[in-house]
Amino acid sequence: MRAAGCDGLITDLSGSIKDFADSAIVLEALDLLITVDTSPAHLAGALGKPVGMLLPYVPNWRWLLERDDSPWYPSLRLFRQERPNDWSTPLRRLAEALKTRAGETAAGSSGSA
Asked: Read out DSSP for 1-59?
């Protein structure tokens, strides 16, 4: 299923991804991964790819608490809900980080989400 107005912007590769090796190949082609799923976040982090991870108010224990980074993956940034079911704050923070990243990329530098 495609989002309205996104024709040509989104390529569905799900039919060609069979395992983590296939996922790693796809991740290597990306500039940045934004995800809510821990599996690709761990894989991208292990590959050193920039990752933005959206987390619910009560996250999986692996993401720890009260921090926006990961001790295991320096290229990963966490965007947490501050209240249950309220995604407005983490999405706003993610949008701000993407704007900053776009400015840095345009200026010739790079960093995590």
From this structure: ---TT-TTT----GGG--SHHHHHHHHHT-S-EEES-HHHHHHHHHHT--EEEEE-SS-
**What pTM, to 2 d.p., does this model score?**
0.83
8 A C-beta contact, residue 70 and residue 62: no
Q: How confident is the model at residue 31 (pLDDT cuts 50, 70, 90)?
A: very high
Alpha-carbon separation of residue 46 from 38, 43, 51 (angstroms)? 12, 5, 10
β-pair partners for 79? 54
Under a CB-based contact definition with an 8 Å cutoff, are residues 33 and 27 in contact?
yes
Taking the C-alpha atoms of residue 15 and residue 17, their distance in angstroms, rounded to an integer, is 6
Lowest mean pLDDT among 5-9, 16-20, 61-65, 94-98: 5-9
| Position 105 confidence tier, pLDDT thresholds 50, 70, 90 | confident
- The residue assigned the tokens 């569905």 is 12
